[in-house]
Amino acid sequence: MHMNTQTSSLSCRDWNDNITLCCRCKANMNNLVQSLVPKFTNLQTLMLRQNKPQLNDEAVEAVANHCHDLQHLDLSKSLKLTDRALYAVANGCTQLVKLNISGCSDFSDDALAFLASQCRSLKHLNLCGCAKAASDKALQALAYSCNQLQFLNLGWCEGVGDVGVMSLARGCPDLRALDLCGCVLITGYSFINFMSSLISLLSWSSYSSSLLCSSLTFCYSFLVVDDSVISLANGCRHLRSLGLYYCQNITDRAMYSLANSRYGRNHEVWESVLTKHGEGLRNLNISQCTALTATAVQAVCDSFPALHTCPDRHSLIISGCLSLTSVHCACALQPWRSAGRAAIAQ
Predict the structure, then answer these.
(1) DSSP 3-state assignment of 122?
(2) The dihedral sign for the CA sequence 256, 258, 259, 260
(3) Are the C-beta atoms of 283 and 240 separated by less than 8 Å?
(4) What is the pTM of this model?
(5) Burial class, 326, CB count within 10 angstroms (exposed 0-12 / middle 13-18 / buried 19+)
């Protein structure tokens, strides 16, 4: 089904069993949702995109009352929603695996904790900007009930502190992507304990001794220190993306730890990870980390050939660091090598 008008756009696929509904509205979204969801009782994916906030609690309650098989729900930027909507989702959509409520700034931590207790299959949760909902208390509830959680975005949740982060370490050993950008209360030493708790937990489980986490993001944190990155380098062999934007207490010591992690005492572990999963670190954002020197960052770039400074494949982000302009990726050497081979051939 496809419907396009001046006020709404609706797309639907797989009518009978695995139904996906994507709705974009300039106006009248609530009426549209309430009229459609009774006809889509097998709905599994629902994305409600809005040009401006209009979705209300009644529309979400209609979804929860009719779509009990829902697994993926996107309510992002729904600024008008209150706890009433989140409680309805918790009671009616207990099969949720992926939930995006980023920007829903009125949800409380009590409502989020209740959702966690009801939706225990959650693997992907986006709470970016949910400053009232994402408290340490709510994270403790998530860690207790949602131990399958793999992807968690806590960007700009300023109430998240050390207690919440540590509870995630104890309760969610399968975490693979964690965004803590703007979580200014988290200390570097808390993160060291976070890594230690995960390693200790995994050593008593059936998981690999190398942490599964592949993406971590910090930014605007003066509390993240070298020891945080060192702990990460030693324990997170699957790490593919690391964001340290504006973490100005990071120094060369952290960079050398990253560079050496590939060739340290767990060399065989690293090589097996690289063989199975790719080239190791692929994205690194150290913008505004002004204490770093070119020599240290070049060592990281040399250790991980998937990091690129060239315009076409820019994955080492160093903006705001004038001292790092000489850092180059392997691509920079290729023209010289090609010219050398041509000269030898002649």
Answers:
(1) coil
(2) positive
(3) yes
(4) 0.84
(5) exposed
